[in-house]
């Protein structure tokens, strides 16, 4: 088994990467069977975006602030841990944003796509599903569409639902909704195509973000689950992602 060690810029992650590279003969990601990422969830997301087209599985170890997508760090028995790890498949969302300048930007998101107000005024948005209008006007700070893996991140902070990993659904969650006041979001089939339109882009500009890729001055956004892009994350049996998502629902 050939391993590629990649690390965040945190000193602890860099030091660990040097130790592991010497111990396990680290190879470039293009030559490896498994990519081992050292850091936090933010670094893991960047690693997925950078190397997902290689088709390699990813095994993360936590050496950062947040580690929901990571395993505990240990430098012993790494080959055995990887062999016995449980795989979890994450399907990416594809965001297609059109800007006021006429530019079309396409980005992937493994956690969520969010649309956020860009000024001190609330955004006015229209929401469509599969081309059919569902909310003619949503007044809010923003709205997001989350994958099951991302449902415990920004989505949870916005009071959205936690989704089981194999549920084949997406979460649509408003951020500080003002009108309609009683709408708290929706759970959508994973095949749904979501359309979001800014109704007053000059006075109330909005930005769109796919994970950490931000696009400013957006007129409209289309979001759907990509059938082409998926990644495999590996988790130690005692810390598999499905169990973490289940346990998260009982955290007080």
In brief, what are we looking at here?
This protein has 252 residues and is of the alpha+beta class. It contains five helices and 15 strands. β1 (3-7), α1 and β2 (34-39) form a beta-alpha-beta unit.
Overview of the molecule:
This protein has 252 residues and is of the alpha+beta class. The chain folds into two domains: 3-84, Rossmann fold (3-Layer(aba) Sandwich); 92-227, Tumour Suppressor Smad4 (Sandwich). It is built from five helices and 15 strands. The chain has helices spanning 11-24, 41-51, 78-83, 154-157, 241-248, and strands at 3-7, 34-39, 58-62, 86-99, 104-109, 112-117, 123-129, 132-140, 142-146, 169-175, 186-189, 194-198, 206-210, 213-215, 218-235. Strands 1, 2, 3, 4, 5, 7, 8, 12 and 15 form a nine-stranded mixed sheet that branches. A six-stranded antiparallel sheet has the order 11-10-9-6-13-14, with no helix packed on it. Strand 4 (86-99) and strand 5 form a beta hairpin. It is elongated. The relative contact order is 0.17. The model has no long low-confidence stretch (mean pLDDT 94).
Order of helices and strands: EHEHEHEEEEEEHEEEEEEH
- What's the architecture of the largest domain in CATH terms? Sandwich
Helix content: 10-25%
Q: What is the terminal separation in angstroms?
A: 41 Å
- Rg estimate, integer Å: 19 Å
Classify the secondary structure makeup into a structural class. alpha+beta
How many domains? The number is 2
**CATH-defined superfamily of the largest domain:** Probable inorganic polyphosphate/atp-NAD kinase, domain 2
The averaged pLDDT comes out at 94
CATH fold descriptor of the largest domain: Tumour Suppressor Smad4
| CATH class annotation of the largest domain | Mainly Beta
Count the E strands: 15
Query: What amount of the residues lies in strands?
Result: 35-45%
- Major sheet summary line: 9 strands, mixed
Number of helices: 5
Q: Flag low-confidence runs.
A: none
What sort of overall outline do the alpha carbons produce when their principal axes are compared? Answer: elongated
């Amino acid at each position: 088994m050939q391993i590629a060690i990649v690390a965040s810029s945190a000193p602890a992650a860099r030091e660990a990467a040097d130790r592991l590279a010497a111990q396990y003969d680290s190879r470039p990601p293009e030559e490896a069977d498994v990519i081992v990422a050292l850091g936090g969830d933010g670094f893991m997301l960047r690693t997925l975006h950078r190397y997902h087209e290689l088709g390699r599985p990813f095994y993360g170890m936590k050496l950062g602030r947040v580690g929901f997508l990571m395993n505990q760090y240990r430098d012993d028995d790494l080959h055995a841990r990887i062999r016995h790890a449980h795989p979890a498949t994450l399907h990416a969302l594809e965001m297609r944003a059109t800007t006021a300048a006429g530019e079309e930007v396409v980005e992937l998101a493994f956690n969520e796509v969010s649309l956020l107000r860009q000024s001190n005024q609330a955004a006015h948005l229209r929401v469509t599903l599969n081309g059919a209008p569902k909310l003619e006007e949503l007044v809010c700070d923003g709205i997001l569409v989350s994958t099951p893996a991302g449902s415990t991140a920004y989505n949870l902070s916005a009071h959205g639902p936690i989704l089981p990993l194999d549920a084949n659904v997406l979460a649509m969650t408003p951020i500080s909704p003002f009108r309609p006041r009683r709408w708290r979001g929706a759970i959508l089939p994973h095949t749904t195509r979501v359309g979001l339109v800014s109704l007053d882009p000059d006075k109330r500009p909005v930005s769109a973000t796919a994970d950490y890729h931000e696009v400013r001055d957006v007129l409209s956004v289309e979001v759907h689950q990509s059938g082409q892009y998926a990644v495999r994350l590996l988790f130690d049996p005692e810390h598999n992602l499905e169990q973490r998502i289940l346990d998260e629902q009982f955290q007080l």
